[in-house]
Design a protein that fits this description.
58% helix; 62 residues; single chain
Length: 62
């Protein structure tokens, strides 16, 4: 019965640490790439957000 009540031990093989480092490295690399592209190309020319016909100037005139 004591064996059934024992807690499940977390794996200590190092793969959890490697996975966390890989995720952190991927996020940081993506952020740095985005900043580099933004710096080189500049911000987008069009405003952000949905482009709905009801908000279009020609639709408002109708």
């Amino acid at each position: 019965m004591a064996g059934a009540l024992r807690r499940i031990e977390l794996s200590t093989d190092g793969f959890g640490v490697m996975r966390k480092r890989l995720v952190a490295w991927t996020i940081l690399t993506s952020a740095l790439l985005a900043v580099a592209v933004w710096t080189v190309l500049g911000p987008p020319e069009h405003p952000a957000g949905p482009h709905l016909p009801s908000r279009d100037l020609t639709a408002a005139v109708r």
